[in-house]
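Appendix B, example 12.
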Amino acid sequence: MAVTTTTTVGSQINSEVLVDYIQDSARNHAVMLPLAHAQELGGSNSASASFAKVTALTAPAAGDQGTTGITAQAFTLTDVVATAAPYEMAVDVSKQALRTMRPAALMHLVDEMIYQLANKIDAAGAALFAGLDAGVGSSGVNITPDVLNAAAIALHTSHPARSAGRTVICLHQMQIGDLRNLLFDATNGLPPGYSRQDLMDIFGTTPGHSLLGLNVGRWGDIPILQMAQVATANAGADRAGAMFIFGEGGAFGCAVLWHPEIEEASLAAARISGKTYLGDVSFGWIEIDGTKGQKIVTDA
């Protein structure tokens, strides 16, 4: 996740060190944006991005050749548009605090600001899960491995080519916790047909499981990411996670006008009483194709 700074914070900490820290912090916090078909709009003279939604075609059958024996397929292409909008925050630091704080304290401030900006991006992206065309799970009922299987089967059936190797699962920690509890269910034991290793894989306990540099779990060959930003559903009774095809040609798109930036305000009033640090980001999410994902709605 690219992050820039046009700041004079370098008067407190070496500028290059701070820029590197902001970039590392943003990568650690942001989850959804790398999973989107993202378009960078800087210098494009527009705050909107168009994404193509195309009909899924089927591969030709054996013997389909020439002009006979071929069934024509309908093809349509629709543009969906995402528009980036700015989100801003400001933090005042008193002159007293500035004079007494250690340089590392400013990095803690930057880390928290970047976290909040990345949280905004992730929450807006995760809010689209509930709008996917189809889904699995039941309101008020805990998630189980069978729910994950059902989502995988449905998505692979509808998009067999695109889903292979390009699918991810995003779940709330409450959903992950319900799956984790199955490992320690002394009353009912393990779910029928599943081993303890099957469940341990969900929590990233098997070495070598990673996506976007994050330590993740897996269900089969599908990575699982835990996200606090997964939204509630059904009046707060449930959480709406999702399994979806990611990246270009996937379920979601994001228009990015600029990535998180942190800068020091140049207002005279701010300098008199202390300093004000500003953070902002400009982005806009869109569902490109609701058939390329399965919402996973289970008890919160």
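The helical segments are 15-29, 95-100, 103-126, 145-158, 160-163, 173-181, 196-202, 268-273. The chain has one domain: 1-54+79-300.
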